Amino acid sequence: MRKKIMVAFSALLCFTVCFSFMFAGKVDARTLSSNETGTHGGYDYEYWKDSGNGTMTLKDGGAFSCQWSNINNILFRKGRKFNETQTHQQIGNITVQYGVDYRPNGNSYLCVYGWTVDPLVEYYIVESWGDWRPPGAQSKGLIAVDGGTYDVYETTRVQQPSIKGTATFQQYWSVRTSKKTSGTISVSEHFNAWERMGMRMGKMYEVALTIEGYQSSGSADVYTNVITIGGSGGNAGGNDWNQGGWDWNQGGNDWNQGGWDWNQGGWDWNQGGNDWNQGGWDWNQGGNDWNQGGWDWNQGGNDWNQGGWD
Questions:
Q1: Is residue 212 annotated as part of the catalytic site, yes or no?
Q2: Three-point CA angle 227, 165, 63, nearest 5°
Q3: Among the options 46, 122, 127, 206, which is catalytic?
Q4: Which of 62, 127, 176, 249 has a beta carbon 3.0–4.6 Å from 254's, enabling a disulfide?
Q5: CB burial of residue 195 (10 Å; 0-12, 13-18, 19+)
Q6: pLDDT above 80: residue 107
Q7: Which family is it part of (predicted)?
């Protein structure tokens, strides 16, 4: 009997511990009704309005819900804030997975939103909107991203509120040609497209999934908002750190662990994989090495060197 009681007690204890682990990472919901910034569920959030009524309920992770009425301008957002010292290339590839039950009544946007400094830029990647498609300007052209098409716009705000107080600044826009309320947004692809069109980005302040209302009312339930920074993707002219995958870097410095590495015109460090380097310095441990026209150091592998020192 005593043995059965001990078995039952052990099973109950195991269930209690497992249940506790399952919910240990959850955070309590919070509801805001006035301007506030902070962190919640591992994400940075901001509630901002100039006038009117609105509430924002912060949920676990990047999720939140909001409602607004009788407002002039209001923004609800959850995302990542940065320290204004790195460009988007230095930060790494940025993507957002999102899903929103979006119910605007009037002028509103569902978008990825943020700012850069040096230059001061306010940017929007608009996935859906209310009864008016922003921004009411002449398109600079179409781009294709994530299986959809977007018009690109550049507008100027003169002496308007900004993250640096009242200022004059540029706004960059990508606006879908058809509305969408769930999917993936390859944020860095928009940044790269803008820069190819002469729209220079500065050092990153923020990237956030945002609901904005302007002289309108409505509600939204952001049930999915997952922001991923880093990972695979082409990188031209910058520094790149990649672990456990494939890496392509042109014109910068490259560190790659446990994968394949291709680097042109820079310095290369590769551990535990295969390495191809042209026109630079090469250090390779525990793998195969091919180097043309530079200096070569190889430990514990096979070495092929043409026209340099070995």
A1: yes
A2: 25
A3: 122
A4: 249
A5: middle
A6: yes
A7: Belongs to the glycosyl hydrolase 11 (cellulase G) family.
